Sequence to fold (463 residues):
Amino acid sequence: MTRTVGDGTRSATAVLGHFAATLRYEGIPASSVTRARQLVLDTVGLALGGQRTPLGRALAAFAAGRLPGDEATIIGSERASVEGAAFANAATAKIVGMEDTNRAYGHVAVEVVPAALAAAESTRRTGRDLIAAVVAGYEVFGRVGRQVRQAHLARGMDIKGTVGTLAAAAAAGAALGLDSDRVGHALAIAASLAAGLETYVHDPEESHTEHLIAGFAARHGVMAARLAGSGFRGPKGAIDGPGGFASAFGDGFGEGTLADLGARFEIESAGVKPHAGCRHVHQAVDAVLEARRQGAIDLDRVAQIDVGTYRHALAAPFRTTLSPNSPAAAAYSLPVATAVALVFGGFAPEHVVRYTDQRVRALLPKLRVREVPEFQAFHPHKNGCLVRITLDDGRVREGRVEYARGEPEHMLTDQEFEDKFRALAGEQLPAADVDRWIAALWALDAADDVVTVVAPGRERARL
Fold:
């Protein structure tokens, strides 16, 4: 079955496959190119940060051992097959919890960039080819993700693993240089590899699946693209046909969903996390930091803290708990994030792990969270928050944000991106190598071979 999707009666796999296969750097707006460059830099930095953790090192070792090869680079580590590098880099980039975000459909870059990067490295593609592949992957994620997101939330599915697999297949297919027909079949095959549950949010300290799901999506997307490249085929209606992805994982594929494909680019709605933990606590962190900028706050004199925001940030018990039992659980709690930010002036990974600090614990009973109609009315188009800190002498400090820092309307500066990259890399590499890596990533458009971006200065650093 085919249906009208905006340019005739072709299936969604055919339309999206053609778009991904034929998109070229020269046809992408400068603003979208800039966002793609930022997201590649950010994701590489996140993978380096993940490699500093025991879990990240275990993932790299697993991929190199079980998915071996000499086709692509596990960032900051060894070589592996394309599937192995995509899996390890995606899962590792998710570990520190500071990945990209989108108010409409979640995290994208941690699946799309590793898949595109591994595929592009294996075929010695240019930096411009990589940018086009990343933009294409975002387009698939956004167009399909907007259709199924609400159903996913209601049913407990993880969109990284479901739609992320489709997006990774499109990005990998484009980076491998597949033609329109084969990218379409990569999407159709990927639809049968898509999976993921958000069960981990209820017991995060016991689970690694939050990170593994990103790795599964990247690996399965690459696998689908390579299968299609070898002549394997999937059903044309895999996305919008009877029993297709959109009806199986959502409530169907709306008419006109692809009507403005190529005129409006989904990647421009991507945001970036400057803080660790759940995105739905960041608006409170930013509001607290705004209040702190007004002057020092004596924590001993805090009488009450009122936090007002949108409903989804408060909707689940794990988002409002005052007593998380692990750093992973603390990263999801709006009250804990508010208190940690007030005590330490940030919500980076090194702050989150100090959630049991006595000063944080002393503030939590004084904290009240509530839904504010104004913020709810504008969500998800905005993710605002008001934090009011009342002292024991009646004085009040307030911080208010309309958009969390890192949203497209409140994007990080280039310097902030670089500072984040350096903080994530830590002392894993010499400072000069980190500087060279940042320079190479900012100059992605000029790279004749993406290997210079994946592993710059390989002769001087063990990668």
